[in-house]
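Problem statement: downstream parser choked on a complex file, so we are re-checking the raw output for the magnesium ion run. The parser issue turned out to be on our end (a line-ending mismatch), but while we're here, posting the original submission so the record is complete.
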Amino acid sequence: MDVIRKTPHDCSVRPNLTDYEQARAQFHWSDVPPLCAGMGPGRCNIAYAAVDRHAEGPAATRTALRFVTDAGSDGAITTRDLSYSELGRLVRRFSGALRSLGIHRGNRVFTIMNRSPELYIAMLGALRNGSVVSPLFSAFGPEPIATRVSIGQADVLVTTRAIYERKIAKIRDRLPSVRHVVVVDDGKAGGAPPGTLNFWECLDAADENAPIEPTAADDPALLHFTSGTTGTPKGAIHVHGAVAMHYVTGLYALDLHPDDTYWCTADPGWVTGTSYGIISPLLHGVTSIVDEAEFDARRWYQILQDQGVSVWYTAPTAIRMLIKAGPELPAQYRFPRLRFIASVGEPLNPEAVWWGKRVLGLPIHDNWWQTETGGIMIANTPAFDIKPGSMGRPLPGVDAYIVRHNDDDTTEVVDEPDVEGELALKPGWPSMFRGYLGAEERYRNSFANGLYLTGDLAKKDADGYFWFVGRKDDVIKSAGHLIGPFEVESALTDHPAVAEAAVIGIPDPTVGEMVKAFVTLKNGVVADEDLRLELLGHARKRLGAAVAPKDIEFVDALPHTSSGKIMRRLLKARELGLPEGDTSTIERQPDHRAEGVPS
Ligand code: ATP
Ligand code: MG
């Protein structure tokens, strides 16, 4: 099997993690540097560690967030910077503003905004105030907003005038828990719509030296809704103590160094965009790029080049879109500062890892985690070779297992390598979720034999690398075989004509389920019967007749969640003429310029 070997030449700076085995053996969560020592004994607050600590320290004048604004009429990309001290001042003010509105520790602040400075100020300010923050994706329509706000019993909504007028005003009377709506005026008109408060007026009137709420590590900090890939989204509760995880994973999985320019392409409406788009980079005092616009291949290459991005954290769906756009585009750009690329959110096909090496000069480091884990668990790191197609190995401080569920309802750890089973984690890492809001039984059912069950199927090889097989719900049972969609999709995306593939099982009286693939093609490739037959043959050669798809259908696009994941359950429901279920997170056409970016 092809392995991408790491050599000293791969690293223009010395990685934070060099000896994986030793780091794992010696690691204790209690050894993580105290990030909130300045708050006094027993205190912990994410905003303190991420912002206050730097705003008064040596990083004060460094750029914390660089917003890349939409191109002007001349096509030029402009930027606006917030230094750590400026961000600190605004975050202090926002926490003061909330306090003067009677919003305190434990109250819930929901944000529904595009990626503008106000979103970051509001989220960090609310954390600093001890309030529980729930960032909602700005492209949600009124119904998904109403559902989540009701589940979360929001006390405050922070949004923009455009979103308020289009989506929230009409459902306001269905949101009785909401005491205040704070609105950022998008510059179209002054003041604030009736029944709302103006963001900047609140900020200007607030105390710039508002004291931080003395929260503790176990106090709730964030409420994140899952992507809804497999069903109705769940609200996962996270605590301030998670900050230790965001710090350690920024160090080991993203290899952040203080002089990095870092770009996480995820929207803060999803957990990646908060944990690694806001918290982790600020903890490390780096400069983060925030792109305010939606995905565009040319623009993304331009940002990587012009902003001198050194560490880039993105997602398979974005990588597939860049691949689809063709090789001519990246050939027009240079990325001399880029030194580390990582990806999360979906399985990363081996071909995408190689594409990174070929086109950007660097392999892509896949890593695995989920909303519930709050931080990266399994990763390819600078410290070891990459086996393309593998998610990597558990980070120091994380214990991951493959488990088998027996007929007598017991769950046991599988010791032999290369056996498929459910991926399970030993609780104890700091960013572990503390519950699903309003679904205690579901939370309890996520544990067995002292382990947290992730709902994903995987296998572990003899070298300790984990390989994703599929979600429990997506696995196909055909003629006695268990088929993971990822393996089949990877074989198809391996073909030069294929951009993206999604595989489902169709009920079949003879074999149980028949494997069917939906395929999108790269730009310029013509979909015809010859190509279909060629792809069927290609897959059969790679996978064998038992696993290869029996049917391939060409489609213009696959259904994705707005966080960029392929929704196989929707393909299946459509194919079988069944109800589509919860579609609140499905990716829709952007209805304002900052929406629709994959995370
Ligand atoms: P829901 O739980 O509502 O169905 P979701 O599981 O997609 O949605 P997230 O928490 O955003 O919501 O996604 C986590 C899931 O994404 C993981 O459980 C896994 O299935 C998938 N995933 C994330 N990273 C990877 C990866 N590197 N390889 C394979 N799958 C991944
Ligand atoms: Mg999930």
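For whoever reads this later: Residues 226, 370, 455 surround magnesium ion (ligand 2) (CB under 6 Å).
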